[in-house]
């Protein structure tokens, strides 16, 4: 798959958000009265709007991994858990952050971020799912909104100030940290103590969700216990342990609750192992030598039925470093054994592109789309191959449809801008770039691009009418965005 510029480290946003705000609930042994708590101050509709603001600002700082293969995996895993969760009142969106540190966090509006480093430490898909289920519980129990309301009751205007500070963090982490600490006037230790008394609720609800979704409920205490033991004597804790402290009592409580569910023995998840290999190869900042050493070490101790996922990871390292013969040697047996595996199709498509074997890639992708017509991975790959093969109209048809169906996917708009640029269709290119700017809350740039697109379009044409209509929408979005910000 084509790759956008790699994202920088996520810095401090996730640690600050979860340390300060993520896990506040009422009694840990009973569900809170969600109907009254937080409803008077922060409605679900407003939470969704804040969530949209945060996501746009985070896209601007580019910490998000815009990899269609990994995005499809984490969305599928997250929504499998959501389908088995209670009290779901918001849409959910799951995304990956390129960061070596172990962490996951829940934002407003059902937006849940997972650090790529978490894959390196979770031994099974159930362990990864246990962390995500915990964060889903934070959302369904409205912990963030209830925390803000609690602070607002203790200090005038604290809620507005804290929400505003979180926006600052999304745009400029250092400024936001200073602002947040000043406005709350509460020590980090005090926040952590409050968190320790209530994190158990998210554990309890998360374990129930985990079990209903068919995962191993013991995965949560296993993972938390292993982390606690690993960092027991270190002075520098990972963000996850700062934001989600793991005292022995909490681990014991999660173990006791998991014991209430039947034990589940699951075979290793192929998709999880493939996602993990892809992240090690591309999203942990490893050099080629370090990545290959990691894969070779794992191959020596891997069971025979888990070696193909590791060889897949090695093939990506070779691909990304121009060693196509070595990549092909590993990939051909994999794609032959599982011709409809999206991970393998994506990798072999990359190889075909580098070798300029466009027809091979197009044939394979079109055949795969017959069985998985809604796959984002296949649609984007096919559009990209057609673009590289200079079949611009066919590529454009796919991308126009895709961007209409997935308006928040940066990949579709980026490819669309490239397509128009290669055809010297400046109006279309400007419009696509305007959408990219809007997804990053760069409203002035988005409006400027669409204004230029409308000017370049043929007078009275359908394109000009479409650009003018989109301009009106963007101005409304900008006004709404600024109105929310000015309310702080």
TrEMBL record:
Recorded GO MF terms: metalloendopeptidase activity; zinc ion binding
Annotated SUPFAM superfamilies: TPR-like
Active site: 135, 203
EC number from the UniProt entry: 3.4.-.-
Cofactor(s) this protein requires: Zn(2+)
Signal sequence segment: 1-25
InterPro entries the record matches: Mito/Outer_Membr_Metalloprot (IPR051156), Peptidase_M48 (IPR001915), Protease_BepA (IPR030873), TPR-like_helical_dom_sf (IPR011990)
Domain of life of the native organism: Bacteria
Gene3D superfamilies attached to this UniProt entry: Metalloproteases ('zincins'), catalytic domain, Tetratricopeptide repeat domain
Annotated compartments: Periplasm
Principal location: periplasm
One Pfam family recorded for the sequence: TPR_19
Keywords in alphabetical order: Hydrolase, Metal-binding, Metalloprotease, Periplasm, Protease, Signal, Zinc
Gene Ontology BP terms: proteolysis involved in protein catabolic process
Residue ranges constituting the Peptidase M48 domain according to the UniProt record: 71-253
Cofactor binding, per record: Binds 1 zinc ion per subunit.
Function: Functions as both a chaperone and a metalloprotease. Maintains the integrity of the outer membrane by promoting either the assembly or the elimination of outer membrane proteins, depending on their folding state.
Record-given protein name: Putative beta-barrel assembly-enhancing protease
Source species of the chain: Photobacterium kishitanii
């Amino acid at each position: 798959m084509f790759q956008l510029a790699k994202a920088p480290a996520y810095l401090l946003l996730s640690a600050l958000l979860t340390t300060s705000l993520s896990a506040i609930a009422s009694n840990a042994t009973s569900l809170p009265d969600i109907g009254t708590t937080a409803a008077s101050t922060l409605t679900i509709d407003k939470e969704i709007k804040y969530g949209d603001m945060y996501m746009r600002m985070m896209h601007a700082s580019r910490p998000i991994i815009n990899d269609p293969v990994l995005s499809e995996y984490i969305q599928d895993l997250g929504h499998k858990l959501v389908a088995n969760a209670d009290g779901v009142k918001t849409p959910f969106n799951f995304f990956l952050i390129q960061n070596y540190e172990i962490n996951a966090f829940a934002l407003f509006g059902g937006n849940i971020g997972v650090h790529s480093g978490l894959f390196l430490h979770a031994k099974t898909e159930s362990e990864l799912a246990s962390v995500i289920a915990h964060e889903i519980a934070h959302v369904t129990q409205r912990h963030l909104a209830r925390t803000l309301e609690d602070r607002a009751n203790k200090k005038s205007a604290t809620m507005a100030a804290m929400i505003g500070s979180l926006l600052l963090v999304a745009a400029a982490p250092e400024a936001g940290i200073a602002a947040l600490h000043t406005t709350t006037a509460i020590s980090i230790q005090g926040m952590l103590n409050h968190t320790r008394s209530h994190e158990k609720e998210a554990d309890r609800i998360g374990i129930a969700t985990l079990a209903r979704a068919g995962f191993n409920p013991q995965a949560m205490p296993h993972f938390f216990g292993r982390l606690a033991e690993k960092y027991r004597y270190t002075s520098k804790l990972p963000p996850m342990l700062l934001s989600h402290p793991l005292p022995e009592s909490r681990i014991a409580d999660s173990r006791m609750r998991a014991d209430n569910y039947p034990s589940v023995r699951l075979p290793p998840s192929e998709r999880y192992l493939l996602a993990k290999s892809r992240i090690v190869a591309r999203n942990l900042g490893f050099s080629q030598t370090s990545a290959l050493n990691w894969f070779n070490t794992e191959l020596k101790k891997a069971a025979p039925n888990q070696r193909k996922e590791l060889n897949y990871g090695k093939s990506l390292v070779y691909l990304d470093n121009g060693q196509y013969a070595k990549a092909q040697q590993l990939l051909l047996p994999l794609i032959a054994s599982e011709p409809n595996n999206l991970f393998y199709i994506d990798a072999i498509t990359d190889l075909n592109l580098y070798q300029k074997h466009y027809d091979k890639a197009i044939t394979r992708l079109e055949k795969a789309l017959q069985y998985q017509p809604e796959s984002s991975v296949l649609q984007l790959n096919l559009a990209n191959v057609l673009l590289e093969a200079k079949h611009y109209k066919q590529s454009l048809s796919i991308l126009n449809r895709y961007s209409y169906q997935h308006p928040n996917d940066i990949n579709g708009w980026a490819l669309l801008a490239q397509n128009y640029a290669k055809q010297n269709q400046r109006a279309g290119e400007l419009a696509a770039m305007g959408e990219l700017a809007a997804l990053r809350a760069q409203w002035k740039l988005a409006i400027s691009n669409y204004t230029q697109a409308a000017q370049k379009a043929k007078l009275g044409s359908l394109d000009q009418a479409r650009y003018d209509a989109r301009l009106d929408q963007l101005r409304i979005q900008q006004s709404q965005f600024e109105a929310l910000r000015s309310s702080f």
